[in-house]
Amino acid sequence: MFASKRLGKELMKMQEHLPPGISIVKSENLEEWQMDIKVLDDNPLYQNEIYRLKFTFGSKYPIEPPEVQFIEIKPTSTEPPETKRPIPIHPHIYSNGIICLDLLSSAGWSPVQTVESICMSIQSMLTANTRDERPPGDSDFVSYNRRRPRDINFMYDDDNV
Amino acid sequence: MKLDQFLAMEVGSDQDDVLDLRGLEYSSSYDDHLMCPICHCPFIRPVRLGCDHVFCQMCLNTAIRSFAADRDDFTCPTCRAPTRDVYLNVPRILTNMCDEIPVRCPFTSEGCKEIVPRGHIQSHADKYCGYKPMDCPSPVCDKRTRKKDLCPENNCMHELHKCLRCEEEIMEQDYEEHLKELCPSLKTTCPDCQATVFRKALREHIDVCQEAIHPCTASKYGCPIKMKRAELGTHEQSCPLITIGPYFEAQNSRLNSMELTVRHLQQRNEIFEDGLSSIRSTLVESSRAFSAHHNNTNTDLPTSTSASSDIQRTSPNDHDTSATLSNATTYLLSLHESLREEVAQLSHGITDLDARASMAIMNECLRLKEDMAHTNAAVTSIRMQVQWLMNPRLHQGQRTTSGQNGNDSRTGTVAGPGSGAGPSSNTPGPVRVRRLSDTGREGTKL
After folding, report:
1. Tens-digit pLDDT profile for residues B196-255
2. pTM
3. d(CA A69, CA A90)
4. DSSP letters spanning chain A
5. Considering A100, A101, A118, A122, which one is annotated as catalytic?
């Protein structure tokens, strides 16, 4: 009840106004939303690409953080290439879309964060990145991980990106 | 207040008769600053942290409980400043502004349309709202009834009555309304034919009522006739406007398409006119610029002279033959471009020359200044020398006069040798003179 009320208010506000480069794709139910984000500056790693974020809200949102990850949409032959959504390359984003960001962990989360502020944080995380690489151990993690993002104990050691 | 004390405080939202302000529907948008950053509602019983960030009491309570297992770790959700104390005193203006935000009555679904400031919603719901569901006064009935429907005798309003007309079972509380408004068996009279019909069938009846007065179908083409539907049929058979109707339709569609084409053509025409005027203006400009250019530089520039004659030659032409117009204009435009380039080159050269000239002038000035300084120095040295040379003379003159004066005072007879001793250098006089001149030289040095 608390979560849906708050999400309803956020949605109403976002439908009025959204920051540049962020758009709502799916927000019909109050459990899973999808957002599209674009990197606005001319960072060559992310130019001309749109990325899709999936938000999964628990009943305790905003006291507990939502689960946020990138999802990939592969281009198909029947659909135009504009519909494709890759996973952005970043030293803190695994190739299955899981993001290592302390803001999204229960330790770094604060209930004043909103869907909009998370999108903007991820946007700026991409903007600031110059390294064309995946996190160390990406392939192992991707093939063996069966846990949900919120259950993974990330180490937040890199303050640079 | 310490966090533990704060957590021990009663939150007070669990009581049954107190409205949950968070669940209210806000009828208008409110300022973001009045919004608790956690629940995004206008502050409900706001409390303040040491860093001056304000939250609802309940939101902060939940946040502390879920984030800080030991109370020392708690940080402000907004700014992450370490926080040990909570202050209950927030500015009165904040609570006032939050209480003033209009909300809808929580019993909207029951039919209450009331919108009141949030500060008054509790008393509205408690005392004034007639739509608040109340327990039925009858001890055997477990239904609820709206406050306004409660009858003063405290009877149960949920007994079912059978409507005498439509045989439907209606609760007592709704019976009156049913009888007056809703019962489908209610009858009414048609305003046109005076026939009595069921209320629910009235609309259908009006559509077919033979007595209702309708305009002729050709009224849009100007037929003024309005008559009863029964007679309208005979009229429509003879109405000339109906026979001509299809023709009107065709004409109308043709007119519409014509208008469309005309608009299209107008647009194109405007575009062409714009182009023409721009060409004209460039022509005028180029000829003007050229003539100015020609007057300024009398040096012979073969391209420009030929261009001027070309302009003169082509300008009558474009009045005569429109076919050569486009050719001539492109030629002129290219000419104009080349002229512009030349002018730009010239102005460039002029600025270059200007710069060079000013540089030369400056160099010359510097040299002259230096020379002046030299001459000045020479002049001063000469002046000094002259002064030096003049000094002994002056002094001698002084000395002779003073000597004459002294001699005069003593004896008048030695006046002759006294004046003759002046020029001779063997007398002690010149020694004093030299000393004096020395001091004079020091003066000039200073």
Report:
1. 777 767 777 777 777 777 777 777 777 777 777 777 778 877 888 888 888 889 999 999
2. 0.51
3. 13
4. -HHHHHHHHHHHHHHH---TTEEEEE-SSSSEEEEEEE--S--TTTTT-EEEEEEE--TTTTTSPPEEEEE-B---SSS-GGG-B-PPPBTTB-TTSBB--GGGSTTT--TT--HHHHHHHHHHHHHT-----PPTTHHHHHHH--S-GGG----------
5. A100
ipTM value for the complex: 0.79
**Are residues B63 and B151 both part of a single domain?**
no
Determine the residue of chain B that is closest to A107 in CA distance: B67
Coil/strand/helix, residue B196: strand
- Smallest CA-to-CA distance from A121 within A92, A149, A145, A148 is with A92
**Do A63 and B63 count as a contact with CB atoms less than 8 A apart?**
yes
CA-nearest residue of chain A to B64?
A: A63
Chain B residues touching A6 at Cβ < 8 A: 39-40
Q: Which domain holds residue B75?
A: 3-128
Domain A2-144 bears CATH identifier 3.10.450.60:
no
Residue B381: the pLDDT is 95
Angstrom distance (rounded) from CA A9 to CA A17: 13
| Residue A100 known to be catalytic | yes
Q: Count how many pairs of residues, chain A against chain B, have C-beta atoms within 8 Å.
A: 32
Which of B22, B41, B63 lies at the smallest CB-CB distance from A111? Answer: B63
Is position B403 within any domain? no
